[in-house]
What we know:
Layout: H1 6-12, E1 16-21, E2 24-30, E3 32-35, E4 49-56, E5 59-66, E6 69-78, E7 81-87, E8 94-97, H2 112-116, E9 124-126, E10 129-134, E11 137-143, E12 147-151, E13 156-160, E14 165-168, H3 177-189, H4 191-194, H5 199-207, H6 220-232, E15 234-238, E16 247-248, E17 258-259, H7 260-270, H8 275-287, E18 298-299, H9 303-310, H10 325-335, H11 339-359, H12 385-393, H13 395-401, E19 410-411, H14 413-432, H15 436-457, E20 458-459, E21 464-465, E22 467-469, E23 475-476, H16 485-488, H17 494-504, H18 538-550, H19 554-569, E24 577-578, E25 585-586, H20 597-606
Parallel strand pairs: 3-15, 7-11, 8-14
Antiparallel strand pairs: 1-2, 4-5, 5-6, 6-7, 9-10, 10-11, 12-13, 15-16, 17-18, 19-22, 20-21, 22-23, 24-25
Alpha-D-glucopyranose binds near residues 255, 259, 261 and 262.
Amino acid sequence: MNIVLSNKREICGNILSAVLGETGVKRLYFGEYFRGEPFAEIEAAKKPSILVETWDLKGIERILEVEGVFLREFISIYKDIIVYSLEFPRECSLCLKGRIIPHYWSSRDNIDEMAREGRFKGEVIDNSTFLVFYENRLFAVKCNQNLDINVKKSKVEFRAENMSKDFVLVASGGVSKETVLREVSSAVENPLKIAGLRAKWIKSLLSKTRPLQTKRKDFTDLWKYCWYVILTNRSVIENHPILVKPFNMPTKYVFRHQWLWDSAFHAIVLSLYDVNLAKEELYNLFYAQKPDGRIPHEIFLSKIICRRLWHVDDYCPWTTQPPVLAVAIKRILDEKYDRDFAKLAFEKLLKYDEWFSTKRDADQDNLVSYIDYLESGWDNSVRWDDPVTRLQEKPDYYHSFYPRARMAPVEAVDLNCLIYIQRKTISELAKRLGDHRTSEKYSTLAEETRRKILQYMWDEETGFFYDVYEDTHEKILVKTPAAFLTMFAKIATQKQAEKLVKHLFDPREFWTTFPLPSVSADNPKYDPKGYWRGRTWINMIWFTYWGLVNYGYLNEAKKLALRTLELMSRGPTCYENYNSSTGEPIGAPDFGWSTLVIDLMKDLERRKILD
Length: 611
Ligand code: GLC
């Protein structure tokens, strides 16, 4: 078989993965290869707590604590070689029963240096370093003390000298870096807590600065790197009932499942490269659709993890996520109309929209609600602070219409703008497919949603759009970039748009160093480093850019895009989010939807603003 890699390699590096069989390559994949249930066998394992987790292009570094002992681990990847390094105090007595699992994969291959040093040649290199094949992958494990290494068929056991207790390495997620840092600094200040175990050593690890900044003069590198990210985040899962098509993980550093709105954004970017890849990105979401029409929030690789987090016996949580799907479908079909895909997408969207009407619109006013903060995609946003409190005050009342609600239901402005687009898209698709009745029905429904957004969500006094409570239609007066989706969806009037643009360019509100903080900077709860409480997210910039273009604010759109590109170009990759006050990247690197800037660059190029 001849495989030509030259063009792809140039941008994407190792985009192909191979599964080795008994006699050579068993299967070749476009995308990295994962297994369906990575956690199945380690469910019962003792979990270390992660005190510090830092990601950069070299890999992931973690400081862990297990039973009062601190460990440092470093995980990276070189081509198909997973590099795992572990350091711990020489005098500690721990037993390491190593089951290193593919959960640790990161996607970078820039540790050529290590490879050049020839450390990956043999099997056991010395008594503290060894290489091993595990599940058709090659692992390099390095430890700072002598190890007994026992390579078995399906697992590797490695024992340090003087071991007594059992310890199995597993990953645990969900701890924010801020929490971790807080905990560690308090531990370092409190010598009792660290029980004399290497306070100095931990301090020195914490004080290490990481060389992240590489200045660039133009956006060429960012452009290439974004392509690299969107193409190499592709993954293939074997033995999975829903994840049957390749799809993009939001970032292999930390988010290793398929997410609904992330994939819609990925598909938008992929459609600029190859519409078939863009379509492929959406198929698993279609397959995951529930009989009642809901398209789930996430599709986990592992049922066990899903159960642990969501208390359901399923690969998917009970929630959905912002319905950006219709936007992606429209992009794909505008790029190249394909009747079969249009028909499938139409059927899926129609059922999905019916689900919103029956399960997320208790007051039947054609504005739908979020009933869970994670469902909104804006996990810990200031928008949900009051709704969460309200539910806690009157749980029985709210649970009487939404038994699973974790906040008082909110008719969110962005959600309903997306629903408006979804309804219009259904209407357009129906028309094209010859179903005129559905087309008319959905056109009327869309119009009704638009009317209600204008009626309930606009506040003349402050000149802004707000979320409203479903039961009272009272406004939640928190200004966020969600309001700019009214311009993306072409719902705001020209006059309203004018007012929104004033807010956007006001340095006290949204025009911060890295513009569009996830809550306006004049909100007392604004925290430029707070996840959805003040960091800047690129998907919001993308919506707003197109919103500005829709209303003829071309210079403003250009200003927003150029500022974004300039700041992103200072870092080596496209990060999950940015400190809105300093512009520094935070969150995970190689983040999929941040590659939406490719779409902005293309548009600037069309307008001859960029070459
Ligand atoms: C975080 C974000 C959510 C996103 C997910 C995967 O939970 O808050 O919006 O979909 O990560 O990237």
